[in-house]
Structure formats: C-alpha cells, structure tokens
Design goal:
By secondary structure, the protein is an alpha/beta fold. Helices cover 37% and strands 19% of the residues. It has two domains: 116 residues, Aspartate Aminotransferase, domain 1; 241 residues, Type I PLP-dependent aspartate aminotransferase-like (Major domain) (Aspartate Aminotransferase, domain 2, 3-Layer(aba) Sandwich), CATH 3.40.640.10. The strands form four sheets. Strands 4-12-11-10-7-5-6 form a seven-stranded mixed β-sheet, with helices on both faces. A four-stranded mixed β-sheet has the order 1-2-3-15. Helix 3 runs parallel beside helix 9 and helix 10 runs parallel beside helix 12. The two termini are 35 Å apart. The mean pLDDT is 98. The chain binds pyridoxal-5'-phosphate (PLP).
Length: 391
C-alpha cells in the first residue's frame, strides 16, 4: 500500500522536535550539531530570537492579503534587496523553483519585447540544480531528473561545467540567456573560478546575452558576501534567490536590473503567496542581521576556521577524504568512501551533514554557528571518519 505521504523522499530515521541555534534536538533529548541548516535554509540557525519576534509580531497582526493590495513589508524587503545588490527591482516567490520559472520567463520576454522572439534558448551546465518544475528539470537536463516526465520544456542547451569555450561555441542568435550557479550545491559544492564569471560576463556583454545567476543556495551570506558573485566583481542581469532569505520561512525572490525586467509589465506574472506579510517580515529581519556591520566579517572568520579544521581532517584521514572544496560556510568534503555512508555514520556521532553529487558531503552550517560549535562539529566528524575507517 502506498504510504500516506507520497514516497518521493528517502528519509533518515531522525525526527526533531526542537531547534536551538546550531542544534537540533530529538524527543528523547539527543542533541545533533546541525551542519546542514535544512539545506542552507536556516541561515541564522534555529529559533533565532529576532526571527521568532518578527514572525510572531506579524502573525498577531496580519497573515495574508494577496497581491491585490499594497504590502508594506514586501516593499520594505524589496528596498533592502535593491539597496544591497545590483538589482533595480524584485519579484517575490515562495521557493527556488518558482524563482527559476520567473527567471526563464523574464529572459524570454525581454527578447520578445525587443522584437527578437526567436531568442529563447537558455544555456545551462552539467551538475546544475534549478528546481523540480518543468523549467527546472529541463534546465538541469540530467537523465535522472527528466526521465519519464516528457514532453520536456524546450529551449535549454546543456554545456560542460565551467567551460568557457563551450559557452562561446554555443552562443548564437537564438540564445536568450546563460543560467549558472556561482557555487553548485546539489552538484557537489563546485565553485566557479572568479575568472570564469568575469569572462562569462564579458561574453554575455559582447553578445547582449542575459546572465542569470542561481544564488538560491549560495546567496544570503553563505559564501561570506551577501551574494556569491560579489567575489568576482561582476553583476548578473537576473538572479534567483530563495532558501536562506526566509531563514526557514518559505520565501524566494527574483532580482533583476531595470533593463532585464523590461518585459514584465502589469499582468505578465503573479503569485498568490509570493511576498506575503509573514514571509517578508522574516525576510526583512534576515537581511537586517546579515547586513549589520561585522556580521559577514564574522562569517568569513568562521569559514576560515572551519576550512582549516576540515583540511586537518582530510590530512588525518586520507583513506576517507580526498579534499575540501567550496567557499565561505558552503563547504564540501570530496570522499573516497561512499558519501552516504559518512552522512549516516555522522548521525551515530550526532553531527548532521548533507550528501551531494560527485560523492561529496556538504557542510552548510548556520551562519551564526559559534567557533566552539565548529570545533565540536569537526571533532564529531573526526569520530565519524574513524568509525567508517574501522568498519
Ligand atoms: C534548492 C535549490 C533550488 C530549488 O529551490 P526549491 O526552494 O527547492 O524550489 C534551485 N536552485 C538551487 C541552486 C538550489 O539549491
């Protein structure tokens, strides 16, 4: 008999009843150090007092009105995002997938309005993850994601990861945009070199092609800047955001320049829940905290500490680990044993990591993790590696 919850997930036998900062607690009191943050969602950890206050206050005042009316904290959050980024304008969604949908629509509409309706192709890359909608799976294009779900949305051209020559060769008079993650998350914590992003921006400029960045996982302070592309000193035309921006409340956004958004006029797009008062109250609190003086400096300091300790772990267990990769507090350990076995053994040692493609375990701790908890987490990973090595 089919389970009452559609069985699309492979779930670990863990069940949490409470979260406190970087800790997740089961009903029996077992305390796990959380290096997963619900896949980069709980950017400020669990039950951050400022987020609890923002959500409670809004919950007591007003939950939902629809986008038929003005929503003051949606306006406030858009203003904050515009102030702190390349963007001139923001549309709010409820998830990364919905942000992908709009990014693709916006890019195609841009060319349509320019009188070039044949410019519809989006160039994407191996190992990409952009969500599970028809556009999201078509963008990723992997057999695993699209098989059985045809007909697949047309107009995506799949290229090898970080291959500039392949981009150059693929750009044509039908290309609307290039879509890429500055740091691949699901794909195994693969970081684009700054030089690649710079060259890609230049290629897009030469050909008028729009550059869409998917910062759903790597954005909102994760790499030590508000957005990962800032390290390369470039800006996109369109950017997808979600995960960390809501700190655990479902919230996403598409940020764009005025030029790229030119086709998105009244009636061309919408969302029932997108930018609702609850989500935007929390989003405002998240941005205020991440942009507070010193916060990102702290992320970078802690990222340096975690990376250094993980390098030590790799050196101590060359039979288990190959290398550390990633940026900021978005780090991966490339494994020599099955990454899934390490994640599972981590549960025995009360430390949570997240598996990714390319046999990598991901570490995406809350940006608020303390140095003490970083040391404890790596000690637990050490015990985990020792356990797997002995097995
Ligand atoms: C998680 C993720 C998505 C999809 O986000 P959902 O909120 O699950 O729809 C898209 N792109 C990237 C890079 C992601 O990590």
């Amino acid at each position: 008999m089919i389970p009452s919850v559609l069985p699309t997930y492979s779930r670990a036998p863990l069940s949490f009843v409470k979260g406190e900062g970087s800790w997740l607690i089961e009903a029996d009191g077992r305390r796990f150090l959380d290096l997963g943050s619900g896949i980069a969602v709980n950017a400020l950890g669990h039950a951050h007092p400022a987020l609890v206050a923002a959500l409670s206050e809004q919950a007591n005042a007003l939950w939902h009105t629809s986008n038929l009316y003005q929503i003051p904290n949606q306006q406030a959050l858009a203003d904050k995002l515009v102030e702190h980024s390349f963007a001139d304008t923001v549309f709010f969604t409820n998830s990364g997938t919905e942000s992908c949908e709009l990014a693709v629509k916006m890019a195609r509409k841009y060319w349509y309005e320019k009188g070039q309706p044949d410019r519809t192709d989006i160039l994407t890359f191996d190992g990409a993850f952009h969500g599970r909608s028809s556009a999201g799976i078509a963008a990723a294009g992997s057999e695993k994601m699209v098989k059985g779900f045809g007909p697949i949305l047309q107009g995506f051209v799949h290229l090898p990861w970080a291959d500039l020559d392949a981009v150059r060769a693929a750009l044509s008079e039908t290309t609307a945009a290039v879509l890429i993650e500055p740091v691949q998350g699901e794909g195994g914590i693969r970081t684009l070199p700054d030089s690649f992003l710079k060259d890609l921006r230049a290629l897009c400029d030469e050909t008028g092609t729009l550059l869409i960045l998917d910062e759903v996982q790597c954005g909102i302070g994760r790499t030590g800047r508000l957005f990962a592309h800032e390290w390369a000193g470039i800006t996109p035309d369109i950017m997808m955001v979600a995960k960390g921006i809501g700190g655990g409340f479902p919230l996403g956004a598409v940020l764009a320049t005025e030029a790229a958004a030119a086709g998105m006029t009244v009636g061309t797009h919408g969302s029932t829940y997108g930018g609702n008062p609850l989500g935007c109250a929390v989003g405002c609190a998240v941005i205020d905290i991440v942009m507070a003086p010193g916060f990102l400096d702290g992320v970078n300091r802690k990222a340096g500490l975690l990376r250094q300790k993980l390098e030590g772990l790799v050196a101590a267990h060359p039979e288990i680990f190959e290398a550390v990769r990633g940026q900021g507090l978005m780090l991966g350990l490339k494994c020599k044993v099955a990454a899934a076995d390490l994640v599972k053994a981590g549960y025995d040692n009360l430390v949570i990591t997240v598996p990714a493609a390319d046999n990598v375990i991901r570490m995406l701790p809350p940006l608020t993790i303390t140095e003490e908890d970083i040391s404890e987490a790596v000690a637990r990973l050490e015990a985990t590696a020792t356990q797997v090595a002995a097995a």
